[in-house]
């Protein structure tokens, strides 16, 4: 139990740090307007989750799931930040942009997860 908790905490710290650095980089590259960083981490995180769910099962390495999936990807992806970004866009009077952001986030994240699974199955297969 303590070992698993340590894995989640370590992965979470690494994932949250990566999320922060992604946000800093996105603002430097694209400016503060559209929440590019949140969209990017959710799509990248979904792709990585798809790869990991297949790879860990194929390698019989589910013992790494608390570190990689719950911790690292849980700290990296940002559904709560996504929700705040969508509402902020809406409250700024940008309802169409908010709706587009929600649709893009959901569709791209689901597509990335499926793509990640397909890539992992192709490599493992």
Overall description:
The chain is globular and about 50 Å long. It has helices at residues 2-30, 36-58, 65-76, 79-91, 95-124. It has one domain. It is an all-alpha fold and 125 residues long. α1 packs parallel to α3 (65-76) and α2 (36-58) runs parallel beside α5.
The percent range for helix content is over 70%
- Can you summarize the main beta sheet? none
N- and C-termini, Cα separation:
33 Å
Kindly report the average pLDDT value.
94
Q: What is the compact description of this entry?
A:
The protein is mainly alpha-helical and 125 residues long. The chain is built from 5 helices and no strands.
Tags for this entry?
125 residues, 5 helices, globular
Question: What's the SSE blueprint?
Answer:
Layout lengths: L1 H29 L5 H23 L6 H12 L2 H13 L3 H30 L1
């Amino acid at each position: 139990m303590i070992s698993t908790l340590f894995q989640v905490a370590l992965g979470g710290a690494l994932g949250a740090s990566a999320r922060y650095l992604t946000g800093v980089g996105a603002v430097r590259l694209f400016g503060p307007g559209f929440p590019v960083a949140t969209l990017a981490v959710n799509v990248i995180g979904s792709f990585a989750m798809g790869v990991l769910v297949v790879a860990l099962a194929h390698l019989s390495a589910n013992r790494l799931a608390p570190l990689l999936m719950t911790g690292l990807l849980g700290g990296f992806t940002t559904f709560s930040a996504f929700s705040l970004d969508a509402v902020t866009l809406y409250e700024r009077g940008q309802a169409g942009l908010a709706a587009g952001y929600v649709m893009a986030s959901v569709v791209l994240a689901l597509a990335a997860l499926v793509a990640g699974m397909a890539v992992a199955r192709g490599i493992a297969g």
